[in-house]
Specification:
Elements lengths: L1 H28 L8 E6 L7 E6 L2 E7 L5 E6 L6 E6 L4 E6 L5 E8 L2 E8 L1
Parallel strand pairs: 1-7
Antiparallel strand pairs: 1-4, 2-3, 2-5, 5-6, 7-8
């Protein structure tokens, strides 16, 4: 009988500890995290007429047939590390590039079927 009482008290104490820790970490999770930096992406007219999707991490920025002129997109940095993904919607092939953690100006070109990127840190 005494062993059961000790066991119930121990379980009760463990539950109280977990509740305390969950409320404590929940308050820290409410803080809004912001990141310094901006990505300026320029898609040159080399992609004219192609159906492309452009992503930064998992966020879709562009999903259209590319115009005959250069296309500029500006996006604030929203994650600690970012990747630029360019997907050809017709062939479902993709190309990815790791982006500078501080933000940058990115120029995406296509020459002889090969996609290349130049990145200028701001």
């Amino acid at each position: 009988m005494a062993l059961n009482v000790v066991l119930v008290i121990a379980v009760f104490i463990v539950v109280l500890i977990f509740l305390y820790l969950s409320f404590r970490f929940q308050r820290n999770a409410e803080k809004i995290v912001t990141y310094e930096g901006r990505y300026i992406i320029e898609m040159t007219n080399d992609f004219a007429g192609q159906d492309l999707s452009v992503y930064v991490n998992d966020s879709l920025l562009i999903n259209q047939i590319m115009p005959d002129s250069s296309l500029h997109v500006s996006v604030n940095k929203f994650a600690e590390e970012s990747i630029l993904m360019i997907v050809n919607n017709q062939s479902d092939t993709g190309t990815s590039f790791n982006l500078n953690p501080e933000g940058s100006k990115i120029t995406v070109k296509k020459s002889e079927g090969i996609i290349s990127i130049t990145e200028d840190v701001q």
